[in-house]
């Protein structure tokens, strides 16, 4: 693309560094900002700068938080003995939305992925293992996405905590509620048969 | 969506003001920035701020430019008597890419759209009419997109300049090169028959 302005080119080029934003989309976004009042750009850049500079992570679960200990970890009605291990804040939000979980979380901040150069040391694994070894934890629920990286991460953590006597579980994989069997992929369908549950349990409403 | 941090929520909310960016996508983009070095956010916000504050528009054609008169308008080998009327800088880039046009442009900055509250006074229409009335223009080529707003804008300008003796033309509408007839929409196919061209002309290679 040939730009008539270096300022425009620079803005488009920085915008297109974001994941899923190509040059054309970036140009559309940047031209939109140009058409809007100057304040909109100021608000956007200010919000991004503030977020990047001042954001904090809960010192207990590593979730994004404005305070030292996040609201979930600070809530006395949560069960601190059940820890759900997730990848990032989006998973926390998704699980919180279901209203089904009353334990606390541990946010790893990613998955082990040798291809992307992400090893266990870049993730919040050590603090989880410490928590488990210190006792006081009854169950670890693995809720990473079901990919090779997710499975590797689960297994890496499992190996380190399995001797400490903590119960480990994994969220159930199976056919989505409301899905047609014929469209389900083989692996999911296979797992849903192997890991079938007593029929009475399926009657529980969420 | 329930956010665990106000800073995060604000950043997502500002990001999702951009067209085509919903809350979920905004969250993905913002979390990506959080994972990257701080500099990436600084580069992005700086580029956007610089662009919004310092960008200039060519005083002749209103195209985005870092200098008073853009490179196209300042190029002595261009034919100043042929003016192609376009909506925005993206159209200039697209037409320049074809290498088929040696005239200059006039960027309206939008289309007349009563629904969005955009009238002729918000667009660079008056300066175009002035240019035509001052003489020195031989042909005006309308190259707006073929929508109701585009047609309205074309016609609005046409009415104001038709008595000044300037030639007016519209870019050809028809079946895209390489497209199958059966998949073309009726209106386009109909227009392509009504506005058929001498066969010899179709032999011209671009």
TrEMBL record, chains A, B:
A zinc finger (C4-type) spans 58-73. It comes from the Bacteria. Residues 81-176 form the Toprim domain. Transmembrane segments: none annotated. Keywords: DNA damage, DNA recombination, DNA repair, Metal-binding, Zinc, Zinc-finger. Pfam families: RecR_C, RecR_HhH, RecR_ZnF, Toprim_4. InterPro entries: DNA_Rcmb_RecR (IPR000093), Rcmb_RecR (IPR023627), Rcmb_RecR_Znf (IPR015967), TOPRIM_dom (IPR006171), TOPRIM_RecR (IPR034137). HAMAP family: RecR. May play a role in DNA repair. It seems to be involved in an RecBC-independent recombinational process of DNA repair. It may act with RecF and RecO. Belongs to the RecR family. This is Recombination protein RecR. It comes from Flavobacterium luminosum. The lineage of its organism: Bacteria, Pseudomonadati, Bacteroidota, Flavobacteriia, Flavobacteriales. The gene is recR.
């Amino acid at each position: 693309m040939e730009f008539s302005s270096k300022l425009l080119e620079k803005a488009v080029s920085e915008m297109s560094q974001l994941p899923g934003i190509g040059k054309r989309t970036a140009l559309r976004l940047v031209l939109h900002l140009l058409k809007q009042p100057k304040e909109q750009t100021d608000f956007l850049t200010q919000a991004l700068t503030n977020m990047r500079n001042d954001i904090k992570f809960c010192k207990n679960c590593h979730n994004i938080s404005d305070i030292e200990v996040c609201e979930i970890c600070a809530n006395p009605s949560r069960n601190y003995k059940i820890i759900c291990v997730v990848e990032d804040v989006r998973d926390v939000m998704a699980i919180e939305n279901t209203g089904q979980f009353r334990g606390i979380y541990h946010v790893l901040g990613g998955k082990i992925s040798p291809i992307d150069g992400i090893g266990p040391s870049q993730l919040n694994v050590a603090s989880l293992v410490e928590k488990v070894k210190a006792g006081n934890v009854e169950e670890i629920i693995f809720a990473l996405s079901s990919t090779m990286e997710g499975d590797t991460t689960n297994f890496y953590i499992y190996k380190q905590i399995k001797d400490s006597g903590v119960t480990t579980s994994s969220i159930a994989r199976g056919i989505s509620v409301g899905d047609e069997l014929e469209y389900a992929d083989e692996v999911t369908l296979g797992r849903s048969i192997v890991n079938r549950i007593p029929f009475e349990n399926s009657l529980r409403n969420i």
